[in-house]
Amino acid sequence: MRLFQTNKIHFASRATNSVSKFAIAIATAAVLVSCSDTTAPTAPSKTSAAAVSPATDTAETDGSPLRLRLVTAEQLHNTLAYIFGPNISPPVAFAPVTRTDGLLGVGRSFAGVTPSQLELYQKTAATAALEVVNESNRHFLVPCTPKSEEASDDACASTFLASVGRLVYRRPLEADRLAQYVGEARDASARLKDFYAGLGIALEGMLLSPRVMMVSERSEPDPANPGKERLDAYSLASRLSFFLWNAAPDDLLLKAAASGELHTQKGLARTVDRMLASDRIASGVRAFFDDMLMLEDFNNLSKDAQIYPQFTGVAVVDAREQTLRMVVDQLVTKNKDYRDIFTTRETFLSPSLAALYRLPSTPGWVAYEFPEGSPRMGILTQAAFLAAHSHPGRSSPTLRGKALREILLCQPVPRPPANVDFSALENPDPNIRTQRERVSFHLKNPVCAGCHKVTDPMGLALENFDAAGQYRETEKGAKIDASGSMDGKDFTDIRQLALVLHDHPAVTQCLARRVYSYGTGSPSNIVPRTEMAALYKQFEAGGYRLRPLLRTITLSKAFSTVREEQAPTKTAAASVSPAAASVQ
Amino acid sequence: MTITRRRALRGMLGGSAVTLALPLLDCFLNTNGTALADGRKMPVRFGSWFWGLGIDAPIFVPKKAGIGYDLPPEIASWKNISQHVNLFTGMNAFRDGDPNLCHYTGWVINATGQSPAAGGDKPGRTLDHTISNQIGRTTRFQNLTVCCTGDARSTVSYENANSPTPPDASPLNFYTRLFGPAFQDPNAPEFKPNPRLMVRKSVLSGVIDEVKGLEKEIGATDKQRLDQYMTGLRQLEKQFDQQLTKPEPIPACVLPKEISDDPAPGAEVDLMAVRHKMMTDLLVMAAACDQTRVFTMNYSSAQANTVRAGFEKPHHTTTHEEPVGPNGYQEQCSWFATRAMEAWAYHVEAFSKVKEGDGTLLDNSLIYAFTDHGFARVHALDNMAGMIAGRAGGKIKTGLHLKMEGATTARLGYTVQRLMGIDIKGWGSRSNATDKELGEIMA
Lengths: 584, 443
Prior knowledge:
heterodimer, A: three-stranded antiparallel β-sheet, disordered C terminus, B: 11 helices
């Protein structure tokens, strides 16, 4: 049985014949992992469970391993906001984790928890708990009134802690643990002579629990597959919810877990459809693309203010937001083909971005469509991509091409060799004015050309945009030539490159891989190639719409069936890209 | 009236809230000021200081070896600190058959003694953590790590392969973490334990029990992560305990001026210098106030993308694209490296300015500085430089320049661990393996 086979679920077929057009793309991927023989591919850590088994041609295993994943700051924030309302919003910024298989979401399955992280957890828990029980909020957020505000009240404390505990633990609190929390609230209330202060202390302890700050999955025997394990219903609920909503399950989802509905095909489909129709899906999709597109770089991005005065601190924040708004609008609100994000002229503008793009400014965020024929077309021409993959003081065709390969096509580019001869880049000829002329050195030097020929041409197509993402026709007085070739397809400018990308099979395959990995917290290379190919086909059959892809994955056996973690192997190490495990 | 130590302490312990009219008193020190009055020795602190992209040897390496070394232009800023700094040049980070992972292999060897086999081969425990396990367990923070890039991903400190130590990147947040409401001023005239802390601490024990329960449900790899969770909870417990206990007065501890704003974001050198100064000043008082005995300062990251205002190339790009000038070095690169060395000078001098006992805080510290390359233009792992500042409580001499004649950089790492009391007979692997302390600097 196919892991990504979903019974009785059909999507309108909008199959294209793109696969046959791009056999050359597969050859390109092979080039990428071998374009420099001087650098060994990156191995996963020696001690980490990130050391995964390689993708295999045979379905020797199925399902995905149980994970113990760190909850993100945003997931905690969303969860608390859904439980207590948007006013409960402690400032939350947790430590960065190591990106694995292209995703922070996978890295969180393996990241350690340092003492400074625990300090942050404790501060967050204390702040949130104080906000919940403060005088302004307690009467709305605590569903009972204590007999006295100066003394403990077990009954009221129990009502509150059982209700909140079920939501933050994502399963009913065990009776012993609830009794312990009630006891802690009792003691604290008595000592502090304040019922709500005591209740807050118990809530603080609850939010500090590893069962709250980490998602610990459990399995149980799968009655449909003797000898196999499946996620237990509450673990499945959490996996679904953090994946689709970027938050803990709501009451209905926990009820579906409790009733056994999640372990029936119809019940699971009903639940997934409800989740995909919910407004919360926008949060989930934002979180995924923020991760996949590496937009956390914007936490620290800056440009040389003397060279790019328009790239202000506000523009940095807005550039990230613009890309996320566009993605959600195209893929969630308008339910468009994923490939359209490379070609759409629709976007959103803020005043700071209007200034950057040299457009008239209107207050707040407004929808905007660039005119037909505009070079602003798709995600590559947005300031987020252009600025993030440039130097602080100048553009970089290599960084942009590398980002395009690694982030959007899942094609890792090896590190440069250490012994590169840079002499040709020295003593610059004053007649050299454009980046094209400058980086042409890369393609003349055989040591460099292996990799740069798969990065620079795409990056040069974006040279009409400077390091801040501003449009330009010339560089140092010379007209910019943005033509090139990608995997056998010629283009004359960024608009044509966008169309090439639109039809490139690696674009959609990459998304499907990343979405699967993000949802399960496991590198995609644990899935047999044949099964991944089935997922690609289903994505194609769904018209490359995101919701059907999410539905396929969440209803698949690969999502809910549990398999053993495989021991690291040599081939596994070689299958992980250099970029796959960079510290972020 | 003579105020004796006994009289003062009796006053302090007489009630839950006590006001002392006098600030810190010399009576809390022993007669010669080299130890605390209760006989405890002044603690020795260990610091790491990291800068990216190495040195420009022709204008960095002093001609003179030994005491009183000259200060070429790239380290001219050391004029006030060279007597406190041992400089080591001409070292190798041996990778044996492993690839030269640009801007990675070098610092990993410096911090672990091991050459990584591949880019994803993350360091195991870096030596700052080994040392903090030895000398840092009693302080409020076992280990503090900061960076000046503003990017919390800039770190050369690893607890284990899956746990890079996240640096504090915001001076404002770092100030609040150190000296905000949770800081227990050892010299405060009044001590009043917060009753809320007592109940907060009792709740922690329930959470610790929960970790133990969860450990039974998971595999071995995840168990290691939960062990870390447990360690973090124990650290929180310890912090609560310390807040509930009247601290011993510490003469050198002076609450730093409150920080209300962070510097603007950016990788521009002048901004980094501002952040470095703020972070250094906070680290100095964190050490002086015995909030930590181990710290790491990431001045820049490996492959430093530090920028100079108005100059289009960041430091790293410049190392590769700037021609070597007639004097054998890259002028623009040296400008960046010189700024880094100015920051190092500030760092060392700041520790030397705090009087502690009959010496200075620097005398009771050992700060180890290392980088990722020798000549970064060619990603060289030879001709590397490193520094050790401070006298480690009188255990070493300072002010020496040692030409290391191609010895492994691991000799520095081995020596500093031995000086910090780590009972190891050798350190490093393969060609970086060493059991030779730097005898020349031993007092």
